[in-house]
């Protein structure tokens, strides 16, 4: 690789010295590092920065310094142009980041010598249909979530799968998740864990007012339509917990598999189940 992009979570400690060190290390090996405007400004290289959308069109891969949240936003940016993402963890153990700081430069050496594989993950696309007008779709790696606002009041919505009415819910909301998103909000709402290399969708109601209501697993090629039947209180559609749009009575949210897939660079032999065991230990203190 000769041209690499870098995005960083600027809220993390000591991010500027780390970016400078990575830049110097890559420069010594004849690799050009391209930074987004914000990161370039953080290390006083404003003149060399560019917008994030411009950057992903110029690079062969994208290094992301941060946690899973940073990886989610970067995947949405890089996936449409087919650029693979390499995650460097600066926080707690994540499901998406590939290496921690102590192993960073050994990992970069593997990256430059081609000792890696690329894994692909299914993504979702959601759009809002209001009064006959379809708004621009938004993609997400983890999930599309329709949920109530601050008032402690259930919302009512219809769920239709592939044109077939599935159920009318009284609930706090609903999560439509990918296999990658099965370890996120859907898991907290009682959804199943799913191996991330599968292609499918999960429909997980949030606190439904019905004892029989359970998560539903459907084909990745299915199309889900959620129509809001509540006319009181705030209701939001959010993608990956980062991009949101307020919903109104009568709005329909259409969710389907996105045309593009997220690509991640994988170096080591740590499997999904290894990470899952570590997360379980982290969560309950039990030696699994």
TrEMBL record:
The reaction(s) annotated as catalysed by this protein in its Swiss-Prot or TrEMBL entry are: NAD(+) + ATP = ADP + NADP(+) + H(+)
Task: List the keywords (alphabetical).
Answer: ATP-binding, Cytoplasm, Kinase, NAD, NADP, Nucleotide-binding, Transferase
Superkingdom of origin organism: Bacteria
The record places the active site at 68 (proton acceptor)
| Enzyme Commission numbers on file | 2.7.1.23
List where in the cell it is found: Cytoplasm
What GO CC terms are in its UniProt record?
A: cytoplasm
- Its main localization is cytoplasm
Instruction: Extract the GO molecular function terms from the UniProt entry.
Output: ATP binding; metal ion binding; NAD binding; NAD+ kinase activity
Listed cofactors: a divalent metal cation
Instruction: Specify the enzyme's EC class, one word.
Output: transferase
Write out the residues that bind NAD(+).
68-69, 142-143, 153, 170, 172, 183-188, 242
Q: What does this protein do?
A: Involved in the regulation of the intracellular balance of NAD and NADP, and is a key enzyme in the biosynthesis of NADP. Catalyzes specifically the phosphorylation on 2'-hydroxyl of the adenosine moiety of NAD to yield NADP.
The record's similarity note reads: Belongs to the NAD kinase family.
UniProt-recorded name of the protein: NAD kinase
Encoding gene per record: nadK
């Amino acid at each position: 690789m000769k041209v690499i992009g870098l995005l960083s979570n600027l809220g993390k400690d000591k991010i500027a010295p780390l970016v400078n060190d990575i830049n110097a290390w890559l420069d010594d090996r004849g690799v050009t590092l391209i930074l987004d405007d914000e990161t370039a400004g953080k290390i006083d290289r404003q003149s060399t920065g560019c917008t994030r959308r411009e950057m992903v069109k110029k690079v062969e891969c994208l290094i992301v310094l941060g946690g899973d949240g940073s990886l989610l936003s970067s995947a949405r940016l890089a996936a449409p142009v087919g650029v693979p993402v390499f995650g460097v963890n600066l926080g707690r153990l994540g499901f998406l980041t590939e290496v921690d700081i102590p192993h960073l430069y050994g990992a970069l050496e593997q990256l430059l010598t081609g000792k890696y594989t690329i894994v692909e993950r299914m993504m979702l696309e959601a759009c809002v249909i209001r009064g006959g007008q379809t708004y621009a779709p938004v993609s997400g790696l983890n999930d599309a979530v329709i949920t109530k606002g601050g008032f402690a009041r259930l919302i009512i919505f219809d769920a239709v799968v592939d044109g077939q009415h599935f159920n009318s819910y009284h609930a706090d909301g609903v999560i439509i998740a990918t296999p990658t998103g099965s370890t996120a909000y859907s898991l907290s709402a009682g959804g199943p864990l799913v191996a991330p290399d599968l292609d499918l969708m999960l429909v997980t109601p949030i606190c439904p007012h019905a004892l029989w209501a359970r998560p539903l697993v459907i084909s990745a090629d299915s199309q889900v339509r959620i129509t809001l039947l509540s006319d009181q209180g705030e209701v939001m559609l959010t993608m990956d917990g980062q991009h949101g749009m307020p919903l109104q009575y009568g709005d329909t949210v259409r969710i389907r598999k996105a045309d593009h897939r997220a690509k991640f660079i994988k170096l080591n032999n740590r499997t999904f189940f290894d990470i899952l065991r570590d997360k379980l230990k982290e969560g309950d203190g039990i030696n699994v």
